[in-house]
Amino acid sequence: MANPFRRTEQPAVGLITVTVMLGLIMAIIDSTIVNVAIDTIGGNLGATVDEVAWVATGYILANVIVMPLNGWLTALLGRKRFYAISLAIFTIASLLCGLAHSIWMLVFYRVIQGLGGGALQPTAQAIMFETYPPAKRGAAMAIFGLGAMVGPAVGPTLGGYIIDNASWPLIFFINIPIGIVAFLMTLAFIPNPKFIEKPKGGIDWTGLTLLSAGLASLQYVLERGERDDWFSSSTIVLLSVVAVATLVAFLVKTLRDRHPIVDLSVFRFRSFSIGSILGVIMGFGLFGTSLILPLFFQTILNFTAFDTGLALLPGALSTAASMMIVGRILNRIDGRVSIVFGMLIFALSCWMLGGLDVSAGYWDVFWPRLIQGFALGFLFVPLTTISLGDVPIHKLAGATGVYTLLRQLGGSFGIAILTTLLTHETAIAWNVLASGVTQTHGYSVGTLTAMVAQQSTMIAYDYLFRVCAIVFVVATPLVFFIHARRTSGAAVMATAAAAE
Hints:
Mean pLDDT: 80
Distance between the termini: 17 Å
Number of strands: 0
Number of helices: 18
Helix content: over 70%
């Protein structure tokens, strides 16, 4: 009887997987593909560096506002309608971005695109987790992770190729056919689970305003702090105060409300709480190194945008391989062991990158990147599976939104900290090296200045890579506070799967 049952169910599961992965990959690749085109876009639209930076910043600001509202919006609109609307918004905004003729028009359309894109990743994760039976949820998170983790590496490669061989609007236009297919498949295959109920208490406009203002202000501070010299900027100071005040007010209000727009009760599950902390650290390492590696390749090793993408690609491929391995063995091992292995191997790869010098080439970064990518598979899949495993299925949409937001904020904190450290450590290294230059040895002053600048920046990058390694090692003991056993979340999912 098992085989006939599997034949009738498997095609639906496969079609649901393809549907959500199309939306997920489209959104994640788009968030990174634009970064390599920023300079080109600014030049074509006559924008300053600060103006064109809003093309990336506006998208991320919209993302972080939508992510924590995932559960509430899913309950309000229904799973199918919410995911379809998100895809439609993202796809239409992609078309408008490609047609934009001024920088501020492009920024406006990117904000709209971010509102759609911010919902795609947590919703896709919730759908995948709900669709697969408990015994296969590790494999489901491995498939999900292919898009979530490999996308950031594929994006720069694809973006670099498009910029080198075509015009920048194409980086937005390529979303249109994918978005249309994903939209139609959503209407055809994505179910509306019976356990999702309409939110009670109406729309909490006060809570929504506090959350939006707080997250937008915080993300702005993290995105623009280094550029604006942090607290020497009155704007950064003001928005920091706004972020703290509104988020604290939101937390107090949410904890008191009977029907909050963001369900914080998921933090009562220890695995979710510890997993979220580790998710922040994973975001720090993933997004932080995703920023400093391309900068390192282009400023120190003089790689082109396309060459930088190729240098990142081995890590993406090894991540895909390790995720497939972990997806198959996760039910037979303690997931905490896999997480510890992933964190320590990731730390090792960062430490190896911290030993490079200015003469490094492609093959010097190939092996550390390969090891780093391999580690991420062993880290991402079990961490996501265990963190969400305790959460009851009717709270899963909200939990994935909060979990994704925290990982995003971890990445933003990582980028802010690492870029600040890069500037600071470069200045320190410059002062030390410059003070030691007493003779020209036949070199011109300009040549010596360039050499000192390059060496100073190299020392700073090595310091950053070593900092990332230390952060991962220090955070590793937290893993053992996570529950290792199967919990009620799996049981509830099994019951729901049997009832369908």
